[in-house]
Fold these 2 entries.
Entry 1:
Amino acid sequence: MAINIININGLQCNPSVMEIGIQDVSAPDAGRDLTGTMHPMKIGEKQTVQLEWWEPDRTEVKNVLSRVRAESFPVSYYDPNTDTWTTKTMYVGDRQVPVRMWGTDSFGNVRAWYSKMSFKLIEI
């Protein structure tokens, strides 16, 4: 039985790769002083989720991309930090969908085959 490992804006998904990242958020005046000493001034953490699908079909590409068009949306996934399922409000970074080949079907409709689809979700 397949397990969907992430829910993006109501769509259950099972990408080929899911990579959880943790970003430290620093205060606006953080940085290095004149001696080169770093003052990170950490004020919080945010998570990212890098997703990649290998050889997705056209329907899957359309369905997934339609769910990440909003300015922000809910994302539920298994969080390795807490060892539990979590839901966070996220937005999407740049989306890539490289075309492996394209052609026409017997009716003359253009058809594309994709090598992968990938993007990063970033916590608000």
Entry 2:
Amino acid sequence: MTTITVGTTGRDYTLIQSAEDTLSGALSSPTVIELYPDSEFISATTFVTVSGFTTDATNNLTIKPASGNAWYEHADKDTNRIAYDKNKGVALRLTGTYTNAIVVSIANVIIDG
């Protein structure tokens, strides 16, 4: 398995699109892009367009928050579910109108969380 980290503090990449851009040809192992909430993921346009490489059922791509870093995993998720807080974990905040946060143009891509 190949793991690529995205965040601003000591990660492989600072942008999700930059991490995806490193993938080309046919994936030779399952690949995971893990997101860390080092700073807020905020954009007026699409965060990532997934295209330009080949996957299969075994060698797929997963984009997800790193373990323990998802917004929905925060301790107060049961008492304060609706209020967004960038300090509580990974979330993609899209400020543009009529814009998709993630565009997937190939098969075998998993958006987890």
